[in-house]
């Protein structure tokens, strides 16, 4: 699969979300960080804003739920217009059931792992998912520095995906920029969330294109991609 770029509106101007969404119209996804001030120490936005964004942009919405009780709330984000919904396995009560419900409602089901959460215990769950998100910072705030100690975890996850022959996207989120995206692609990631690297640029659309070009070049040389 070709690398995909998902700009995070957490770094956008919340007073101009419609315009900010249009500024990255060439992106593959628009990443929407939902925080409840319980699972993470920050509060952002919820279902009504997702509904409004879905009407304001043709770019599909990639909702990352950093919330408690995702089993209860995740389906509502699908109904609000999200094309992909990510829940944190640390917060989910029944992750398989939740993934199946998200899929049944018509969205892609994704599961996120905090930096300290190992992927190996969830190997058997991978076929139930459309995407796995490896957090490369602690969730809760934008603008954090990339944790390069996550690169081995990304590699191990890619190996598990290949081992089972899955069509599973591998997303990274946190500190992704021109300085780090090639490392992530080389390790096995193929969906990249970028916040300040896109919305902090003079031209967000150009930033998306540049990041995609970097990811494509790194993927073309990556050993995991050459094996396919």
How do the helices and strands follow one another from N- to C-terminus?
A: EHEHEHEHEEHEHEHHH
**Strand residue percentage:** 15-25%
The overall pLDDT, averaged over residues, is 96
Q: Helical region count?
A: 9
Set out the fold topology.
Elements: E1 4-7, H1 17-22, E2 30-35, H2 47-56, E3 61-66, H3 70-79, E4 84-88, H4 95-104, E5 108-113, E6 131-135, H5 151-163, E7 169-173, H6 181-187, E8 191-194, H7 196-199, H8 204-221, H9 223-226
Task: Give a short synopsis of this structure.
The protein is an alpha/beta fold and 228 residues long. Helices cover 36% and strands 18% of the residues.
List the main descriptive attributes of the protein structure presented here:
228 residues, alpha/beta, 8-stranded parallel beta sheet, 9 helices, 18% strand, metal-binding, isomerase, Ribul_P_3_epim-like
Descriptive notes:
- The protein is of the alpha/beta class and 228 residues long.
- It has a single domain (4-225), classed as TIM Barrel, CATH 3.20.20.
- Helices cover 36% and strands 18% of the residues.
- The chain is built from nine helices and eight strands.
- The protein has helices at 17-22, 47-56, 70-79, 95-104, 151-163, 181-187, 196-199, 204-221, 223-226; strands at 4-7, 30-35, 61-66, 84-88, 108-113, 131-135, 169-173, 191-194.
- Helix 4 links the parallel strand 4 and strand 5 (108-113).
- Helix 3 (70-79) packs parallel to helix 4 and helix 6 runs parallel beside helix 8 (204-221).
- The N and C termini lie close together (10 Å).
- The relative contact order is 0.16.
């Amino acid at each position: 699969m070709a690398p995909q770029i998902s700009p995070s509106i957490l770094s956008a101007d919340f007073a101009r979300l419609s315009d900010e969404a249009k500024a990255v119209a060439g992106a593959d996804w628009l990443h929407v960080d939902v925080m409840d001030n319980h699972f993470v120490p920050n509060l952002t936005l919820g279902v009504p804003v997702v509904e409004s964004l879905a009407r304001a942009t043709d770019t599909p919405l990639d909702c990352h739920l950093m919330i408690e009780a995702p089993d209860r709330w995740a389906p509502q984000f699908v109904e609000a217009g999200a094309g992909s919904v990510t829940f944190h396995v640390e917060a989910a009560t029944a992750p398989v059931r939740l993934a199946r419900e998200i899929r049944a409602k018509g969205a892609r089901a994704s599961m996120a792992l905090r930096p300290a959460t190992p992927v190996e215990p969830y190997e058997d769950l991978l076929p139930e998912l459309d995407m796995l998100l490896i957090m490369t910072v602690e969730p809760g705030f934008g603008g954090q520095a990339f944790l390069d100690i996550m690169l081995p975890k990304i590699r191990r996850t890619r190996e598990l995906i290949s081992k089972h022959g899955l069509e599973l996207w591998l997303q990274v989120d946190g500190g992704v920029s021109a300085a780090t995206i090639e490392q992530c692609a080389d390790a096995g990631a193929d969906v990249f969330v970028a916040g300040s690297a896109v919305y902090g640029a003079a031209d967000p659309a150009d930033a998306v294109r540049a990041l995609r070009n970097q990811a494509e070049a790194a993927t073309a040389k990556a050993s995991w991609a050459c094996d396919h």
